[in-house]
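Troubleshooting: if your tokenizer reports a length mismatch, compare your output against this known-good record of 179 residues.
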Amino acid sequence: MPQSTCLTPLGELTLSEEDGAIVSLDWGRGRDQARTPLLARAIAQLQDYFDGNRRMFDLPLAPRGTAFQQRLWAALREIPFGQTRSYGALARELGSAPRAVGQASGANPIPLLIPCHRVLAAHGGLGGYSGGDGPPTKAWLLQHERRVLDAEPGTRPATDQPDLPLGPSRASPSWTLSR
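Known-good structure output:
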């Protein structure tokens, strides 16, 4: 399976391709480095995202998972850049329970491209994150998207959680990250 690694503000990320689609994104360096046109395009899109020039990814994805996981991952891809949903809201949308949504989010094999970092716990809490360093990585991604939106005049992200603690005036210590 071809893999390609790129350096990002969150460290090295490795993308894996199979049958013309991205099947995983992992933190760290992959061992089977082979740059394909799709992997080169994916890396370019990731670099654009981290540079603040891309809000959505236009790549063929083929995550492996159960029927419920596939439904959830499709719903996650519908959450716009800079917006969030709660585990509970997604559970209601899918006719499931918040815990099932959390477990399926944690099983996401392509984090970031399938933006599970945009799902928060009740009352705006971060919840878990299986990528990178866990919740600090999730907080960094949310703050990154907020910074990109804040840099554009007249934009303000929507959320189903009015007390989302992303603004600097309401940031708790768990949301404060050093670069």
